[in-house]
Amino acid sequence: MKQLHRIASAVVLGAVALGAAQAATVTISCGAVGADFENCKRHSAQWAAKTGHTVKIFTLPSSSTDILALFRQMFAAKSTDLDVINIDVVWPGVIKDHLLDLRPYSKGAEKEHFPAIIANNTVDGKLLAMPNFTDAGLLYYRKDLLQKYGLQPPATWQEFNAAAKKIQDGERAAGAADFQGFVFQGKAYEGLSCNALEWLTSFGGQIVDASGKVTVNSPATVQAFKLAASWPGTIAPKGVLNYAEEDARGVFQNGKAAFMRSWPYAWSLSQGADSAVRGKVGVAPLPKGSAEGQAAGALGGWQYAVSRYSKSPEAAADLVMFLTSREIQKERAVKSSFNPTIPELYKDKEVLEANPFMGNLYEVFLNAVPRPSSITGTKYPEVSQAFWNAAHDALSGQATAEDAARRLEGRLNQIKRGKW
Ligand code: GLC
């Protein structure tokens, strides 16, 4: 008995000593849109309490474009300041040289996630990131106002334009002078590339085809750019040319707009205690270009990865696996409407109760349209910048839809220079 006791103490002591020797300080960069930051901070603290490691939080800018610029600077300097970084779904091919292969740490956990996202995050056979949440562009609408004006959620852009105008005119006449038909992301950044991809896909267009050919100078792009150019100053505020996600959400959540294009995260916030539109919001697929067209939501989403320059790769990878686990994904979905990347969770009662759209619009998530990041590889950021600039030129009236599409084709071929 006595001997057993001694052995047990020795084991515990040994474990404590080992723990102290291995305790690491890990710095994680957390996204800043909606409840992403709070979740990242809370869950990282849970992991620290569980493992005995220490976590430091690094706050990122809210725009994906700004975050990429920041990471590229840090990578160029081989900075050890960040261990865990959150990366946009369009970046694995772009920053692949700076990320660690997570396969030695994942113990096969990647098999639980959507295979398409794992394929996206796997470059040259290396699993460069674990999925955190997935995204697709959605149409938010005011249920109460559609009912008031005898309207249905619009299926085509034509119906959409008419509905937005009718509600805007009616609400303005009733005294809400600054009421808007539609808010979306019209600023010149990655978010506009997502919006514009949705418009042109809805008319059957593409930026580049499956073989890598630049196919953007098409009637579909011209129709898409013309449609968008008709919005600022009519059913959308002129200021939309400078709106990112949180600007659009601010207007919609204050009850000042009939429709909003956004991502799933806006759902739980629209239902929050401080939301002016709580209980009044519906979510639908984005409209089609025509009755025969396609309803398209751009594919978005974020992953966690470990920087190759991390001094504590093992602890960092452990944090990544914790944050992307089923348990944490479920909590993030239920509390903050971030879409899980584990298909099983789309059958979970609590997830579906908190987010009816995750079940009703499951097809939208499955068929979300990817930006051409895989095919254009390291050139994707330049491709996207050319695309959002062209869309912004058309949207702001700086260029006609035809000129914007033609110049974009030229610019993309220049970036391609023969091959991607
Ligand atoms: C969302 C998406 C991301 C996209 C960004 C654009 O965060 O998840 O993929 O690049 O919006 O603003």
Gap from first CA to last CA: 71 Å
Largest sheet: 4 strands, mixed
CATH topology of the largest domain: D-Maltodextrin-Binding Protein, domain 2
User: What is the strand content?
Assistant: 5-15%
Structural class category = alpha+beta
Characterization of this structure:
Helix content is 47%, strand content 13%. By secondary structure, it is α+β, with helices and mostly antiparallel strands. It folds into two domains: 2-134 and 301-356, Periplasmic binding protein-like II (D-Maltodextrin-Binding Protein, domain 2, 3-Layer(aba) Sandwich), CATH 3.40.190.10; 138-298 and 369-416, Periplasmic binding protein-like II (D-Maltodextrin-Binding Protein, domain 2, 3-Layer(aba) Sandwich), CATH 3.40.190.10. It has 19 helices and eleven strands. α8 (190-202) packs across α9 and α9 crosses α18. The model is unreliable at 1-18 (pLDDT under 50). Bound molecules: alpha-D-glucopyranose (GLC). Alpha-D-glucopyranose is lined by residues 64, 88-89, 135, 190-191, 194, 245, 263, 300-302. Residues 64, 88-89, 135, 190-191, 194, 245, 263, 300-302 line the site of alpha-D-glucopyranose.
Mind sketching the topology for me?
Blueprint: H1 2-22, E1 25-30, H2 36-51, E2 54-59, H3 64-76, E3 84-88, H4 103-106, H5 115-121, E4 122-123, E5 126-127, E6 130-136, E7 138-142, H6 143-148, H7 157-173, E8 180-183, H8 190-202, H9 219-229, H10 245-253, E9 257-262, H11 265-270, E10 281-284, E11 299-306, H12 313-323, H13 326-336, H14 349-354, H15 356-360, H16 362-366, H17 373-376, H18 380-396, H19 401-416
Parallel strand pairs: 1-2, 8-9
Antiparallel strand pairs: 3-11, 4-5, 6-11, 7-9, 7-10
Helix pairs in contact: 8-9, 8-18, 9-18, 9-19, 18-19
The structure holds alpha-D-glucopyranose.
